[in-house]
Amino acid sequence: MPKKSIIRTEKLCKSFSSGGVMQHVIKNLDTEIYEGDFTVIMGSSGAGKSTLLYALSGMDKASLGSVIFSDRNITGFTSDQLAIFRRKHCGFVFQQVYLMDSMSVLDNVLTAGLLTGQNKKQLAANAKDLLKQVGIEPRLWNKFPNQLSGGEAQRVGIVRAIINSPDMVFADEPTGALNSSSSDQVLNVLTDVNNKGQSILMVTHDMKSARRGNRIIYLKDGTISGECDLGPYVSGDRARHDKLRSFLTEMGW
Amino acid sequence: MLGKLIKANFRKDMSHMISFLLIVILSSFLMQLGLMLVIGYNGQFERKVKELNSPELVVFMATDDESEESAVMDYITSLPEVDYYEIKPSVPLYTEVLTADGEKTDSKDAPSNTTGSYYYAPYGEWGEIDKPQFVDLYDGPVDEPIYMSRIYNQELFKGAYKAGDEISLKVNGREKTFTVAGFYESVSTYNIFFIDPVTLSGLKTDDVVPVKQVLLKLTEGTDVTETYNEIANEFSVRDIPSQVISIDEFKLLYTQMINIVSVFLCAFAVIITLVVLVVIYFRITNSIEQNITNIGALKALGYTAHQIRTAQILEFVLTSLIGTLISTGIVYMILPPLEPALRTVAYMKWDYSFDLTSLMVTLIVIAGSSFLVALKSTSSIKKLDPVIALRFGLKSHSFRRNSAPLETTGGPLVWLMALKSFFASRKQNILILVVMAAIGVSLAVAVFVGYNIGYKPVNLQKLLSDSYADIMVSIEDNDPVSEIMDLPYVEDAWWLDSFTGSYEGSTVQIDITEDWSTVPGISILEGRAPGYDDEIVIGTKLAENRGIMIGDMILIESGGHSYEYTVTGLSQGTDNYGLFVMMNEDGVSHLNKECHKGRVYIMVEGSDPAISPKVVENIENMYGDRLTTYLDYCKTFADGNDPTITLSRVICIVLVIISLAVIWLTMMLLIKTMIIKNQKQLGIKKALGFTSSQLRTELSISMMPPIVAGITAGAIVGVLNSNRFMTLLLGAFGVSRSNMAADPWMIFTVIIGGSLLSYIMVYALSRRIKDISAYSLITE
After folding, report:
1. Nearest CA to CA, how far is B774 from chain A (Å)?
2. Is-above-0.80 flag for pTM?
3. Hey, what domains does chain A have and what are their CATH numbers?
């Protein structure tokens, strides 16, 4: 059965003006991101990975071309329309976590849920359940972000991203600021979430993280220079690891 | 090195410092202008007194009995306190202002009460005391010259006449067209029209009793009040119609309104200075929090805490100094158009020059207090360890309590988020509370003044007079009350006569009517009106000065007779500066006085300003030339033709504008700081899907609790103390207890209006949130 496309780009361009000089970061990019996939965007530094992620998620606007997200062309949306769109359709996991430091763990999660008008009781139960699933124990629920470890905070960030069951979770270097043990925990959570059907689009420059994806898109100078289908993640699958390594080598990584 | 730091600070805080500078300009402008006015006008009066050789005492006496006059003059000259004197004769002549076609009119916008008895004196006949100082003389040929004082041009004709203008008058029944040949300034003889001596003798008739103005120069070191009482008593004993005025009373006439304006300006300058200081504290402590790593880096580089603090302090002190200097420029720029406008209340030209005193005082108050607050605010830098600053920053927040948990707190999400923001911003809430309390006070005073003087001037009239009415008429007829009562639209009427008397050597005004208890507009503060012939009500100022209480018996003397009366009540009024007594007609018989009942006070139906002119017209038709003067308070107040009302309206508008400007500037500064401080949080919220309008609403609502609490506190304090403030302002006039309306609706109006306007302003100012994109958060 063919995969259902969630995001589709048509001749997507993104440029920035810096000191009067135009920088074309994404150039006429055509691609599709599919439902249920754990898609990973890789590329060298400055290739336009994060720019693409934020252009696809409606966090940033395309300069030219269009982004069709859940059958809607979001290119012409106003800032407020995009904000409302993001509530239901997108979840975000950032490298710096970006939890709201004046709010407790539970409130950070509930804020995102309440924005979509969910029933508060059901939402709270769901949030607690998800927090438990990612290993955030009840004693931490009323703590503030600065009282958590980096890994704990990022797991809370993931719960916040999935609380509304969005069409897509966008993860920008989610393990970039974590130590090895915390990174594994976070990646396990993302893998679990994906296994339950959640589509994920992740940007990373870390091969260990990239291994969790089933599809790798390699970006070079603002265009897709190659793609690799890894298939579902299986822990300790050596062949999968080698396939990714040879793909990246081929891409000049 | 320090210069570089200061420059860097300025560059970084430029937009904040501009808002701060504007607030400083506002406060120093008000303070400097207030001080300049009070110093300038009081100094101008003293200079004028010296320049014109003005008298310490002036006695107006009207008698055609030459022997009586010479006896009283002998007495005056025998007083060792009198150095020398001059007598200036003038003639009171009934005058109407006419149009070109000879009709009686309000020409040149003359108020309706222009018609009346005015003093005329021959031009050129004056001595050395208070010699008129002529200004704006007309240099063309003039047939019938008339010279009037600046005050009269202002008071009677609203400053409409210029030198060379023609003025048609009906003087003592004869029509005359004069040319305004010039204006004069004089401290004590401003109430005279100077005309050609031949013309004057032609206008005068035998039945006119001339009024003599005795100008007294006292020997140096004389107690003016004591001599004033002695002379007033002498005239009272001899029963000569007279009025004694001291130089202090003239000073009050010229400077009191300016002093009131100055007090208002300085009071609000102090309020805004308070705002300035709170802003400095908030800005510096926030800046330290935000730039803690920079401060740590500077310390690590070798900058001393003293240098870093000095740079921070100088940033604000220099801005305060610059603001004060800019405001000085603005003050001197507005003085040329302001000075002529102030002549309507000051009655004299102010020759202003650079005033170093007011500039220095303003600099010391504003820059000095800014320095002290900045010094205190930067004290945390002293103890800051560079390593801790670089590694951990300053623990500005220690969120220990999860206020308004979303799981259990009900309400819309934006409101809940606002509630959370509110609980998380203690320092900022205190700042807003203090600023808004100050604003609340100023808005409360604006509403109080606006209502009691601008909108319902009768409240001020009640405060300033022992009795108030809609109309006062003076008729050359004894007891026209019953006839006036029969006129249509007249609701009530009573006559009132006044004599001069004394109590324990102090001159008091004795106000008499048939029965005070039937006068509708009587203003009794305590006790009751006199009911019997041995009862009186006294002015509160007299009671305070002499320690008299209700139930006391006091001896009143007048015209060589005396009687002991029981005090039944206290009344408030500015007649004779609060030194007056009120008794009934049968009570004054003990002093052997006979009342003249020609001065009648009238209340019209519903105190309607549309009706009162009809009543005046009816009285004019009934009495013709026998109506010597009238004052239609009702219409004058409704038209706003009174300088006090105009001034109070201007004060009220200025207060509201200043309050709104301070809210705007403070909130601008505050919101900019908050947005910069919370940029990350705002970006996260945008990424999660909050719209700009939701975030702006959240921010605005989160600021409302301290705004509403501050305005409420300020409104309550302001309204409850407005009467105290008015008592302070009008104390010199004889008001000892202002009791104008200070109603709860005023408090609610300030709270609702102030809060609503603040919300709108905060929402409008939070527009910057629109410019923060979630993407900028990621790429910062």
Report:
1. 6
2. no
3. 5-251 (3.40.50.300)
